[in-house]
Amino acid sequence: MKPLTTEEIRAVIARGKLKDTLFKALGILCLAFGLFVIVALILDMAIKGSERFTLDFFLNFASRRAAQAGILSAWVGSLLVMFVTALAAVPLGVAAGVYLEEYAPRNWMTQVIEINIANLAAVPSIVYGLLALGIFVYQFGFGQSILSAGLTLALLILPIIIVATREAIRAIPAMIREGSMAVGATRWQTCRYHIIPYAMPGILTGVIIGLARAIGETAPIITIGALTFIAFLPPAPLTALPDGGTAGLFDWVTAPFTVMPIQIFNWTSRPDPAFEINAAAAGFVLMAMVLAMNALAIWLRYRMRKNIKW
Fold first, then answer.
1. 182 within a domain of the structure (yes/no)
2. Does residue 25 carry a pLDDT above 90?
């Protein structure tokens, strides 16, 4: 093969640099387009719903009159459902990720489980809703309650948390494990004092991103029977009930509920144009909640990684 001359080598390098520049420009263009769409959507909702950004909008229940309608029951319901979702999904997901990465034997059964977890992350959310309808609502008798909704969304984000936990653990250098075990630590001590603390930034990022996805889900919540119009809040623990009794510590878990996406869906289906303003305002609030959760994930990851020294 004839060796390349200096001019030919320079031409090859110039072509490579040109391709790099074109690829970088294409990436920046795609990023700018995506940011433009998000900013345009947020600004459109903010402008349309600006007149409803009042304290009454956040403290009023839903109403048949658009000017008096609020999102109190919706945002409270969303927070309670997310609380149940986090309680169910985070411990189970993190424990499953740690087991699969640190304890599970490398055999065909483990491979089947890993493949199924990866596939479950891509299953449409409506499938989880149908599963929850048959198991949680009817089989277990939880009914159309906050508990059913929280467990449904926990199933939805469980694969995300497991995958995020495993990826965070894989990013830890092998010398951390080897050094810990070399001084006599058991596998559990290594996980507890080294692996999990060092992987916590990635784990928390996956958890918060999963919750940010769950808070905007509509299909599974509709499937299990969330209310589209509700003018009361779940009973607070140890407070007086209208019938003269006292609410238990966990009575709110079995209460009917609604969430922000359901409230937005209800308003957009109304023929009155005034409800579109309410829907835009509620959509902006929901988008702000999602962006805030993602920003929190980025901040936590940055803050915790600064404290890791190896």
1. yes
2. yes
